[in-house]
Task: structure prediction
Amino acid sequence: MPADRPGGRAVPTVTLMRSPLTRPLPAPPDGLRRGPLREDAFSSRLHDAATAARIGRWLGTAFATCFVTGLISHYLQQPPSWLTVPSRPVWGYRLSQGIHVATGIATVPLLLAKLWTVSPRLWAWPPVRSVLHALERLSVLVLVAAALFEVVTGLVNVVQWYPWSFYFPRVHYYVAWVAIGSILLHIAVKAPVIVEALGRRDEQPDGLTRRGFLAAVGAAVATVTVVTVGQTLRPLSPLALLAPRRPDIGPQGLPVNRTAAAAGVTALAADPAYRLRVDGPRPYALGLAELRALPQHEVELPITCVEGWSATGRWRGVRLRDLLDRAGAGPGGSARVVSLEPAGLYRESVVDSAHATDELTLLALELNGEPLAPDHGSPVRLIAPNRPGVLQTKWVARIEVLAGAA
Ligand SMILES: Nc1nc2c(c(=O)[nH]1)N[C@H]1C(S)=C(S)[C@@H](COP(=O)(O)O)O[C@H]1N2
Ligand SMILES: [Mo]
Result:
């Protein structure tokens, strides 16, 4: 379109073609250009797109892996009706949760390095050039806030400190969707820059080179991983300096999540009149001596806590499926397991039919060759393969047959 129409007013082409989204906004007063907003506030050449894109690639991979394993953890803890969780491999949840926590911890140095690299852009002048620019910056703000929130709440969870009043798993889950959504949006917006930047191989001749910086970030990732992964990988447990729990420390060589005293079950669990009730078409109750007189089985299974530690124990006890059969449960039935614990988030759990019929699923009376310690769930606790620790109910009082084709 010609800028000068015959007989008309002269209209600059650019203004006509600019949408309200990209129209320049008035510049802020220059007096605000101080501190990091100064023109020459950032001097390092490593604040460039080529470095940012390379770290972004690692960070994106770590976040994606953390997100997928996080979904697995979420759906295993609260299985939706459409999902059948298999009971094998026995170490499935252990591996997935180990990766979740390790990749989550690895994002700490990566996120810091990425924020440092792009810091000049965070302090860009003018702060907003147009409405579109403001929207783009807002999306980055959401991305950074969501990512930091996930990393911080995850780490605080690993050290078992819950300084907030919200229910951690739900909030951590929903904010993960916000984080992954804004990451995908960010990658889409930046795609042309990323492609160009990853193709660039120029190196600076002096000072800290890009390769040197990336190697330092890689070393930081390796270090935080090595000093924490020991909480789930036994050979590295002596190095688990930063991990709050080592898999071999605790009564009977296993960590404890919630003690009998904390759960308020010490007296109930030691009561000689204890009986395990099984409710179903043919309900019954068994004392400890009767439980010990039933066929006993020994299994080697891990406890995997969502908080990041895991450890294997040798468990001995009665098969859940034998107890359910005796109560008249039909084939393929599931069960609810209820603790003596009077209150608490994990006082009961549902065992789906895949786990209930698995021969490895026990109501354990012994751990590592000794009667269960009170803190590990005496007199009887549930232990099943490929199952989050929160569902391995301790101090079991009652089992309820739920469903099944009778
Ligand atoms: N009744 C009851 N069972 C419970 C819990 C609980 O708080 N109450 N905590 C669970 C959690 S979070 C974990 S990780 C495992 C840990 O088992 P352990 O303490 O024997 O290692 O027990 C599970 N069983
Ligand atoms: Mo746990």
The CA atoms of residues 128 and 134 lie 5 Å apart. The radius of gyration is 29 Å. The first helix runs from residue 13 to 17.
